[in-house]
Protein 1
Amino acid sequence: MFSPSEEYVPWIVNYPVSSMHTRLLAYTSRHIDLSPAEADYFVSLFKHRQYLKRQFVLQAGDICRHETFIVSGCLRAYFVEPSGSFHIVQFAVEDWWTADLKSLWHETPATLNIDALETTDVLQIEKSNLDRLFREIPKTERMFRVMLTNAFIAHQQRIIDNLCKPAAERYLAFLERYGSISQRVPQAQIASYLGMTPEFLSQVRRNLMR
Amino acid sequence: MFSPSEEYVPWIVNYPVSSMHTRLLAYTSRHIDLSPAEADYFVSLFKHRQYLKRQFVLQAGDICRHETFIVSGCLRAYFVEPSGSFHIVQFAVEDWWTADLKSLWHETPATLNIDALETTDVLQIEKSNLDRLFREIPKTERMFRVMLTNAFIAHQQRIIDNLCKPAAERYLAFLERYGSISQRVPQAQIASYLGMTPEFLSQVRRNLMR
DNA sequence: ATGTTTTCTTAAACTTTCTTAAGGGTTTTT
DNA sequence: AAAAACCCTTAAGAAAGTTTAAGAAAACAT
């Protein structure tokens, strides 16, 4: 056994913001080329923020004010029904973006809640700055269009999976696509994402071990 | 009773292509303003095509070559499983766009089939022309980004509905959102879209009539 | 360490949805 | 006008998924 004093690594590491910018720019460079001046301007529009476990990034009913890029940690977006039961719509980890897009673009009350499953560092850009960014550096709009295209494709695949795959296959597909997430998120959350009860997922897992 | 000779209206009406262009421009004007010259250039990149009932717009395995705007008629996009059963992913009627986006942008074999449920007039633009269009008239890229945002939002809502609503509610939600489609498409197709068997949908409808 | 809370598992009864099979009513084709 | 193909309905039994409730295991807090 290790003594805590030897092994303990604090969760909350205070990376300098500049290194978060580096991460965002590394992501960006996969889609478009920015000149040094453009890159400076680009990151200047983002504000850093850290959320602690269980802290809300967005609450249903509020208006979603920014698009959020995750530098480290894990967020979840979920929908709460009047009955009280809730359904996870998205997990978002490093290099993912999240927002309630309907609320953000139409400036209507959000239907999604977004909160942190771990301590999470993000960079956020406000809608008005996003509009400005698209105007001043049009290729950034291309990047968002491409990101959105990919997100759309992924959602379409998820719809197909939900329509035609039984629970066990949906779970296996989840493991393939989001294996890393499955190891840092409680099982009940995964069940919610997959649209089944935690008890049933447990049963499914048992059956799969043969 | 009417004699056919008095009442018969041919399905296939040959609208002039220019009126189809008008329809596309009317759609476009909801999103962006184009100068007359830009509008001319814009529509010049689209080719008209008519599909007859049951004719394929895209077959799984082929590469999707264009984005398709529907001027009149109705298309469906569906996914066929190895087992032979199939699932409708999208109905597309007047003023809608359709494509297998993954196939179109990544130039990979399509997983979706798209075919006509009625005689359908479309305007199609090839990927290369879409790229050119975005380069020459950047605000068109904005339109596609906004369209995609809305499509993404709709898909997200559909995922939520599939996760949490029982069959009867999903059917009612479908009627609300796509009432016009429900009157021109056979019931079994709607069942496929909703992820249930036609027999069960029939039962659901009977139960709802009380 | 110890007690507390959260998470995971198990099992039985129940509800929802599917499968199969049959019958009747439309259209469409011949 | 008959035959064929298509579409919708009904019903009984089977399978898939949920609910409830209880106990075990792991993580967290003091």
Note: Residues 166-167, 196-197, 199-200, 203 of chain A lie near DNA strand D (CB under 10 Å from a C1').
Protein 2
Amino acid sequence: MNRMDPVHDKRDAILETALVLFTERGFYGTPTAMISREAGVATGTLFFYFKTKEELIDTLYRQVKSEAGAALKTGVGEEQTVKAKICRVGKNAIAWATANPGRFRFMEQFAHSPFVSTTAHEVGMSHFLFLQELVRDGIREGIIRDYDPALLCSILAASLAGISPRIMATPDPEKRELLGQQGLAFLWNGLAARPETDESCNATGVTAKRKGADDHD
Amino acid sequence: MNRMDPVHDKRDAILETALVLFTERGFYGTPTAMISREAGVATGTLFFYFKTKEELIDTLYRQVKSEAGAALKTGVGEEQTVKAKICRVGKNAIAWATANPGRFRFMEQFAHSPFVSTTAHEVGMSHFLFLQELVRDGIREGIIRDYDPALLCSILAASLAGISPRIMATPDPEKRELLGQQGLAFLWNGLAARPETDESCNATGVTAKRKGADDHD
Amino acid sequence: MNRMDPVHDKRDAILETALVLFTERGFYGTPTAMISREAGVATGTLFFYFKTKEELIDTLYRQVKSEAGAALKTGVGEEQTVKAKICRVGKNAIAWATANPGRFRFMEQFAHSPFVSTTAHEVGMSHFLFLQELVRDGIREGIIRDYDPALLCSILAASLAGISPRIMATPDPEKRELLGQQGLAFLWNGLAARPETDESCNATGVTAKRKGADDHD
Amino acid sequence: MNRMDPVHDKRDAILETALVLFTERGFYGTPTAMISREAGVATGTLFFYFKTKEELIDTLYRQVKSEAGAALKTGVGEEQTVKAKICRVGKNAIAWATANPGRFRFMEQFAHSPFVSTTAHEVGMSHFLFLQELVRDGIREGIIRDYDPALLCSILAASLAGISPRIMATPDPEKRELLGQQGLAFLWNGLAARPETDESCNATGVTAKRKGADDHD
DNA sequence: GATGAATGAGGCTTCATTCAT
DNA sequence: GATGAATGAAGCCTCATTCAT
């Protein structure tokens, strides 16, 4: 469906299957024979499209990183202020991770993996450099604290990665929404030169709601 | 307790060697034969002390997690306020990670690994529950925002893990110190019900310095 | 005959490429895919012309053996004496091997190879039976020792195969010529009923020159 | 029996089995699994003693070459003249090849094989350099023609390799003896500065007998 | 306690061959 | 005739684990 080119049927099946299995079982925990079997192709076919198992995961990594990078940028250009832009990125990140839990976990798991080539890591990184630019802009405008931009980005990325699993573990959609708002509020207040006591980074401009009295755990 | 026995020098050699190799090369990337060779013992010896390779990494994981948990708690009891306590934990975390990069990377790498048993993961987690208590205390006192405590802890943990590598990548000790202060300031401002524009969480009570003119990445 | 058809240019390209690759890399060291790639045809094309890889090398072997046999016989009919005929064969052998090192090495390499069918080996052998007849004639005439003709032929063949690489390893044409004369002299003296101290088997009837003072290895 | 060291039971079994199989079926025609099975050991055992299949054949090649070299030299020191020494080598060569047909064929087959390392080839070669010295001595003494010594050695080696299979193909011991004498006579006459019409290179100094009238084929 | 030779299941990859286009 | 994607059997080698010494 999402792959129109009928010529790459099997190649895509391999990629999609590998993504799931690698995430679930790790790189070494996933025999190539298992990938081909699950993908419904012969063992040799995998090696026709990817010279080695490493090349397979590398291709996968680049693809997922590129998709994620694109997802984060969605609609950012339409926002007017740096704050709105950064909030947009944060929301995009949470939305993408929530909608693509497999891809998100894959990215997390292989972010520092030696199975992925250095080049792929660099290329993958490049899709996220715009965030650092955004932070620099904010600092220049005086609305973000004058801290080391790379450090701020690291924290942002790490935090978003910490927020998402927590949200995904929550079944109730309303609670999910709330957790997302709280997470983003945390981040913006960490960044902001003039943090706001009561307002946060959410689409409606509404304050992040407090945890209700019915809150448990 | 019974592991303190100095007679166990071979056992210790195996553990220490395994820690390094697992971190550098991964679980599957490290044959048991390589561990025993590097540790200077025979292949059979490893299996005398650890029934399986999994038991070895499990033991290692529990040990490191326990060490890390203890490190985080150091001196927390002596602090008077919740804020001071949390700041203390943050500083401890950064200090420990910086001083034990191998152990820190090991922990990160195997935090969600299937090679480590579920029990070990749970036991490991337990060493960090006190932090959630601390956060709850802060919320109760009204100095921390009334957000989901588990979420806040997740973000804290993830952020600290994001800060540390950034610091370790910096050779200059002064810059390191600065980055640590900025990182902690970020976190406290994310947490705080009444964030402070200009003050942060540092031992001397001194404001986190802005990036000076002499300070460009 | 029907192989002369110029339409078979792909078939010829495959044969020529295979000859080179088989010689350089051996039978198992040369994938059919490599042959077709180097020959500029598709993998399937090779199997259109040759049912199996074995059939390919078999065809090649027959072709080369037949060429070599024909080369050895060149001009033999024009010689008058048995000695002259045998010398002619020897010169032809060395000349052919020197001019077709690839084909020569191919023949040597696959002379006893199991990849080539028994039939092909027998057919190949048949091109060289005339030499044994020549030897028998010489024995009958009393100019060749009355030794087992098959043994003499084996030695002749083996020796020529030993001489040729030595010559090919020598760049200087004069030295080459000299080595050829020395080799043939050796052989003739081994065969001859009345060996000659100072004369050998060369076109001009000239004595095989001793290694002159200017001639050190 | 011939391997006293009981520690190397399995290693020797592997070597001996590999020698036979490699000769019969070629290098690529012999799976390592077949070698271990026939040798009565586990697949892993082969790789415990030999890191790769190449290392196995390399070891084998060095061993056989060294044995063959030693066999050729047997008793040479006791002979007085160069002629006697060279004849001794010739007889030794034929005797060894006849007594060790497996080893002889192995040597022949892998003499120029790319599976054997260059180093092994060089080391193997070194065991036969004494023959070239012998030839030089003969030339210096004037009893061997002043031809290129390396060429003469090449022919000698190639010829001996041509003689042996012929002898091995002959079941009758008397005929074998005769063929051996004829072959050596051929070689000596090829070498000799003053070839002898009627005498050859044999232990008793007796002339090489002519083929009897009962000779067939 | 300690050793290291021995095991064999299982992993990655190659490659001759087929067949739908 | 010609193509090249697809197949799957089979090969080399690794490595956790055992056990006799």
Note: Chains A and C do not touch (no CB pair under 8 Å).
